[in-house]
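EI: anyone free to look at a 444-residue chain?
SC: sure, send it
EI:
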Amino acid sequence: MPLFALVDANSFYASCEIAFQPALENRPVVVLSNNDGCIVAANKIAKDLARQQSINYGSGGYRAAKPTSMMFQPYFKVKGFLAHHNAAIFSSNYELYADMSTRMHRLIAGFGSSQEIYSIDESFLDLSGMTQWNLTAYGQQIKQRVKQGLGLPVDIGIAPSKTLAKLANHLAKKHKDYDGVLDLSALSDVSVNLLLKNLSVGEVWGIGKQLAAQLEAGGIHTALDLKLASPTLLKRRSSIIERIIMELNGIACIQLKEVAPAKQQILSSRSFGRPVSEYQEMEQAVASYTARAAEKLRSQASVCQTVSVYIRTDPFKTPSYTNHQTLGLVYPSDNTSLLIQMTKRALKRIWQPGLAYQKTGITLSEISPKGALQLDVFAPNPKYSANPKSDNLMRVLDEVNQKMGRGKLHLAAEGLTNKQDWRMRRDYCSPRYTTRWDELLSVH
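SC: here you go
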């Protein structure tokens, strides 16, 4: 019988900060978005305090923000409340979180016959063939190993299908009695149905807000209602509903994806730490984002055929301006120099002087695997595609930056790192403990 475990780190960003500052274990901790704009992560203490206050924050923030929750609200709205409760505030430290994620997934992988890395803080494990084991005790071993090795708390849901494993993980987080591990395969059908009866249909993996509203309008309010529904009738509403119903009945229809599919589009964008009015600064930002996107492109052994650039001012201020430009390449390429040339050319076509720009971004699309190149008889020989010298240069660039730190070696078009004051603001950023020699944790 197939068996899946979903291992999910709790409040991942906040937990990474606490792992290196254990004194924060009993304090509220929150992490802010780019430019220290909104609350994007909080530990349980902070969330519980916010719930007890019943503050109405009104509209604003991210689309997922709710007036009754501090999550995804602008920081300035919550600042006073957090200061009153002596909360620790952090800017997003993406280098630290990415490295901790890699370490966590690598550690977890040893507990299953195969693994699917689902997100930065979630992994599915294949536990098929372990039905005779005490999987609750096994889950506790995984929890203890991750906590001991990385200082991160995780919860684990185990079930015969991935959809049920997601629900089991959700319940393990919700109810203290499970101590962070719930194995649905060890429970009777009656017990599982009682648990599903107390979950709304919108909490089922794969059921979005719109589909949940349609199902509730049709009398399906809970996960149990959906499990007992007729897949044939509901298939008309959505093509995925039949598969979800089978998964809720313990029939595994969604297999592990051990190798993540290559991205079909790569986007690199950020809001600026301050408005940008100088063309040279905007050009540096576009070049910097292009270099980052090109690095991602090479990491998945792909090339792109199209580049796009967009720029915009603050949409809440006048004059407001937004525009984008797309250019095609003669030959698909992954060369940073060529891609920067193209994005700078695109920027020139849409730049309007005299405006204060808030954000820019670049997109690489028409992505395909890197391989043999079909030459165009009417075009000059490619300089940046299928060229061993160009490929070697990019390989050295990536190897140096992987070994010495991102941006250590970069093109002059990106400008000097210490003079890029247009970069996003991170006033509360913690050290990059695991990726920078000069920011290693000191213990006295």
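EI: The chain has a mean pLDDT of 89.
SC: 👍
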